[in-house]
Write a structure and sequence with these properties.
By secondary structure, the protein is α/β, with parallel strands linked by helices. The chain has 4 domains: 185 residues, no CATH class; 359 residues, ABC transporter transmembrane region fold (Up-down Bundle); 205 residues, P-loop containing nucleotide triphosphate hydrolases (Rossmann fold, 3-Layer(aba) Sandwich); 77 residues. It is built from 34 helices and 13 strands. The strands form 4 sheets. A 6-stranded mixed sheet has the order 9-10-11-7-12-13, sandwiched between helices. It has a 3-stranded antiparallel sheet with strand order 6-5-8, with helices on one face. Strands 1-2 form a two-stranded antiparallel sheet. Helix 4 packs antiparallel against helix 5 and helix 16 packs antiparallel against helix 20. The longest helix is centred in the middle third of the chain and has 51 residues. The protein is globular and about 125 Å long. About 7% of the residues have low confidence. GO terms for molecular function: ABC-type glutathione S-conjugate transporter activity; ATP binding; ATP hydrolysis activity. It is a multi-pass membrane protein. This is ABC-type glutathione-S-conjugate transporter. Its EC number is 7.6.2.3.
Length: 1011
């Protein structure tokens, strides 16, 4: 099986036939069978199906069939020479036949499940090709050494050469991908990420990225040059997977809570929603188990890549030792070439593994951040009203922008938790093999540094908590400033608010400064650690025993191991800092995601109900405060228009919120059917074009769109805008009036084509004639929403006769309900509301006169009649005054009209200008080399002294580092230092001085970076 004299101790090495027939064949076959389970797992999860037949996959099957035929002939030959051939000549062909048949099955399954490339098959054919090379050499040598012609031997040579060519061709074919699948879960577009259609070797070497790099080389990259994100990295795929595990974590946590409440947890059917109830228990669910379950598989695979890279890292020093010993020996040249080639292969493989590791970890971090941002955003939408008071906008923004980012930053290096100790342990082990017990001195240095760093880490954690609180406060204040910037400028409050922001920022800078000094200390400790370990170890090695000589092999191999040790030790401070920051973020996110949510069962959707809107015995509140609505009984039939009226603060808008499930239901039952559209009292406008605000993602229907904008009285406004409906509306609609914003919001709801419409006083911001037009064309029975169910909250009493039913709210209760005529006949709360409204209205409206006459004709209570008479008396005096000054008013009005007409003429006579339809212009990035003015400005901002000091200190640090290595090289090659203790001590002292210089400069450099 193995002959050292034939393989190692010879000038012409070769492997034994038994080794070639077993290890070099069975190893690739075993690889295929073992890792096929992983391939089958990926097949089952493949989003694609059915790749069409092509020349590529047919060629693969044909070549595999050829290999099977050749192997069957070898097996038949072994059987025909029974008793002559060794058993391995039976086993190996049989294993090869089974393996090749399995490979053909995998090719077919890849076609069926839409996998355009196979990493398993590529690696299998690569291993088989490489492991076949020794036998190729053996067959050629035997052929050249054969003196007598042998037909069967000639056949074996030709057969194996064809076999080898077949494996090479199959390997080459796996550099290409099959045709796109016929079926796919995701839509295939021209801007898809090329990695999706890249072959396995292209993914390994990142060759799919070359095209973008080439485009960037030829011209500056633009957004149009980039491709779409991979579907599996999108929030559409990532967020549901995380929420599924998060809800299970919540369920498990709340089921195990020990509380004094009867039911602190309840899951609602198949909605995946969780009911948070007030509980005395302080235990909360953590996001970490859900993150592990969601992304643990991908993360674990990356950890295996990291493990392989770490192990290969320690192969290089061992090969280096062999190479150094080879130089000083008389071994054959082929051994030196073998060492060099092996070192190159190890280094290349290590680089590939590290690249794939970072690629996977970056994407895992990206997915974690995406999942957390989605979960936080979702939570912000469904958080309860009482919990909303404790969570400011600034805190929520920081959770999504800062805390979620911390997870992405940590994920890339989190494997250093186990990788760093592993690398340190292996480095110390191999150093022990070289330097013996002297390594314990270096180990003692590392053990001493650990508790010091632990104390600093706790101090940094405390500062980090303070920093995040300060940041939340600052972001909250900045949000208020930006939201009310118009008011700030009108009242000239900028200096006052500037002082408030700077005051908070000063507290932030103070905390950052303290944290920077602590980070500088940590960086100094761990930057000096590798050199301190090497210095103490070398000093102990040469001082404890005079026979310990620091020769080239010992010095350079040890230095190589110390350099490996440098990376984990230098990464520990950054890792500890990131872990401290992330631990703070974990607590903050946990606290927010465990806040109470609105109960999804506040509103039911029972299709057995005939009425689309129903509230029975409803009692509602905003959070834990006293009830806002009580004794609510509302039933709205299909296609009805229902009005809700009442004085300010009577609970009209709260009633709509109760239907929408945004209030806490204390008791009662709420049921809604169909799709709902809601027009709020405060119009919500997107920072987009007017057209996009109306469509809101719906497909564009020209005819329907024009009908809606005309019905909503938007056509004159659109004609006035410089770009028509393509004019960009600013943030919160700053370039629209209140009435225009309200009409855009109404048009959006109408275009949505819902079944039920909740309209919260949509006509309050428009003129009376415009309001009448909108009511007739949109809201009323003959309008666009005539066939819909409508609930209208309004103060406009002129629209009430057109409604099917009216609900009168007083102090959170429905005091009256019925048709307009029924309520007028009752002469109760509704009549009082009308009188009160008439007292507040100053202008003369024909419909109001009709309502007054109706009130007088009904002969209501004496108090109502008296109020109505007083109202008429006031109105008469107002009209008299108006008539007295009518000439002046008419003159003034005519003057105003003439002025407006003149202004319009002057504007029309001006030269046409380019319409400014966009408020926010597209950002233009500078291209080419960075100008020196930028560097100058940057250095000026830092400060000349600090800038020069930083550059000089880094140069000095690198100088000391290079000097120490050169000095160690000189020491290891100085033969006189082996016997001269004084010379040896001099070398050791200078080496230590280089280390002290590095440490001092690193401390100064770290301090210079502190604010």
């Amino acid at each position: 099986f193995w002959d050292l004299n034939r393989t190692w101790y010879t000038d012409d090495p070769d492997l034994t036939p038994c080794f070639q027939q077993t290890v070099l064949v069975w190893t690739p076959c075993a690889f295929l069978w073992v890792f096929s389970l992983l391939e089958l797992y990926y097949m089952r999860r493949s989003p694609n199906k059915d790749i069409p037949w092509s020349f590529l996959n047919l060629s693969k099957l044909a070549l595999i069939g050829l290999l099977i035929v050749l192997t069957i002939v070898d097996l038949a030959n072994a059987i025909s020479t029974d008793g002559v051939s060794a058993p391995v000549y039976y086993y190996t062909p049989a294993i090869k036949i089974a393996t090749f048949a399995f490979a053909a099955i995998i090719v077919f399954l890849n076609k069926r499940y839409g996998m355009r490339t196979s990493g398993l098959l590529f690696m299998f054919w690569l291993l088989l090709t490489i492991f076949s090379i020794p036998r190729v050499r053996t067959e050629i040598r035997e052929h050249e050494a054969r003196l007598v012609a042998d037909t069967w031997a000639e056949y074996q040579l030709i057969s194996f050469m064809i076999f080898f060519a077949g494996t090479v061709l199959l390997l080459l074919l796996n550099f290409f991908v099959d045709k796109p699948p016929r079926e796919s879960k995701y839509e295939i577009t021209a801007k898809d990420c090329p990695e999706l259609s890249a072959s396995f070797p292209s993914r390994i070497f990142f060759a799919w990225f070359d095209r973008l790099a080439w485009i960037g080389f030829k011209k500056p990259l633009e957004v149009e040059d980039l491709w779409h994100m991979k579907p599996e990295d999108s929030s559409k795929e990532v967020a549901p997977a995380f929420l599924e595990h998060w809800n299970k974590t919540l369920e498990k946590t709340y089921q195990t809570r020990e509380t004094s409440n009867e039911a602190s947890f309840k899951k609602f059917g198949n909605t995946g929603r969780v009911d948070f109830r007030t509980t005395k228990s302080k235990s909360i669910a953590s996001i970490l188990p859900a993150l592990v379950k969601t992304f643990g598989g991908t993360f674990l695979f990356g950890s295996f890549l990291k493990l392989g890279q770490d192990l290969l890292t320690f192969a290089s020093p061992q090969i280096l030792k062999l190479l150094i010993n080879f130089v000083s020996s008389d071994d054959p040249m082929w051994k030196g070439l073998l060492y060099a080639i092996t070192m190159f292969i190890v280094a290349g493989t290590q680089t590939l593994l590290l690249g794939q590791y970072f690629n996977r970890m970056f994407f895992v971090g990206l997915r974690i951040r995406t999942a957390l941002i989605s979960a936080i955003y979702r939570k912000a939408l469904i958080i309860s009203n009482s919990a909303r008071k404790t969570s400011t906008v600034g805190e929520i923004v920081n959770l999504m922008a800062v805390d979620a980012q911390r997870f992405m930053d940590l994920t890339t290096y989190i494997n250093m938790i186990w990788s760093a100790p592993l690398q340190i342990a292996l480095a110390l082990f191999f150093l022990w093999q070289i330097l013996g017990p002297s390594v314990l001195a270096g180990l003692a240095v590392m053990i001493i540094l650990i508790p010091v760093n632990g104390v600093i880490a706790n101090m940094i954690k405390t500062l980090q908590i303070k920093q995040m609180k300060n940041k939340d406060e600052r972001v909250k204040l900045m949000n208020e400033v930006l939201s009310g910037i118009k008011v700030l400028k009108l009242y000239a409050w900028e200096p006052s608010f500037e002082q408030q922001v700077l005051k908070i920022r000063d507290k932030e800078v103070k905390v950052l400064k303290s944290a920077a000094y602590l980070n500088a200390g940590t960086s100094f400790i761990w930057s000096c650690a590798p050199f301190l370990v090497s210095l103490v170890t070398f000093a102990t090695y040469v001082l404890v025993d005079e026979n310990n000589v620091l020769d080239a092999s010992t010095a350079f191999v040890s230095l190589s191991l110390f350099n490996i040790l440098r990376f984990p030790l230098s990464m520990l401070p950054m890792l500890i800092s990131n872990m401290v920051q992330t631990s703070v973020s974990v607590k903050r996110i946990n606290t927010f995601l465990n806040q109470e949510e609105l109960d999804p069962d506040n509103v039911q959707h029972d299709e057995k109900e005939s009425s689309p809107l129903l509230i029975e015995n409803g009692v509602f509140s905003w959070g834990e405060e006293e009830t806002t609505l009580k004794n609510i009984n509302v039933r709205v039939e299909r296609n009805q228009i229902v009005a809700v009226v009442g004085t300010v603060g009577s609970g009209k808008s709260s009633l709509l919120s109760a239907f929408l499930g945004e209030m806490d239901k204390v008791s009662g039952r709420v049921n809604t059917l169909g799709r709902i559209a809601y027009v709020s009292q405060q119009a919500w406008i997107q920072n987009a074009t007017l057209k996009d605000n109306i469509l809101f993602g719906k497909p564009y229907d020209e005819r329907r769109y024009q009908r809606i904008i005309e019905a909503c009285a938007l056509k004159p406004d659109i004609e006035m805008l410089p770009g028509g409906d393509m004019t960009e509306i600013g943030e919160k609609g700053i370039n629209l009036s209140g009435g225009q914003k309200q009409r855009v919001s109404l048009a959006r709801a109408v275009y949505n084509d819902a079944d039920v419409y909740f309209l919260d006083d949509p006509l309050s911001a428009v003129d009376s004639h415009v309001g009448k037009h909108i009511f007739e064309q949109v809201i009323g029975s003959s309008g666009l929403l005539g066939s819909k169910t409508r609930v209208l909250v309004t103060h406009g009493i002129t629209y009430l006769p057109e409604t099917d039913k009216i609900f009168v709210l007083r102090q959170g209760e429905i005091s009256e309900s019925g048709t307009y005529k029924e309520l007028m006949d009752r002469k109760g709360a509704f009549a009082e509301f009308l009188v009160q409204h008439l007292q507040e209205v100053n202008e003369e409206v024909e419909d109001l006169d009709e309502i007054k006459q109706q009130l007088e004709s009904t002969g209501g209570p004496i108090e109502i009649l008296n109020q109505l008479k007083r109202t008429n008396s006031k109105r008469s005096r107002s009209e008299s005054t108006s008539e007295t000054g009518s000439v002046k008013d008419i003159s003034r009005q005519n003057s105003t009209n003439d002025s407006n007409s003149s202004l319009r003429r002057r504007i029309s006579e001006k030269a046409p200008e380019v319409p400014k339809t966009k408020l926010i212009e597209q950002e233009k990035s500078e291209t080419g080399s960075v100008k020196w003015e930028v560097y100058k400005h940057y250095l000026k901002s830092i400060g000349l002294t600090l800038s020069v000091a930083t550059v000089l200190l880094n140069m000095v640090f690198q100088g000391f580092s290079i000097g120490s290595n050169l000095w160690l090289s000189r020491w290891s090659t100085d033969k006189e230092a082996e016997n001269d203790t004084g010379l040896r001590d001099m070398y050791l002292g200078v080496y230590g001085a280089f280390g002290a210089g590095q440490g001092r400069k690193e401390l100064q450099n770290g301090s210079s970076h502190s604010p």
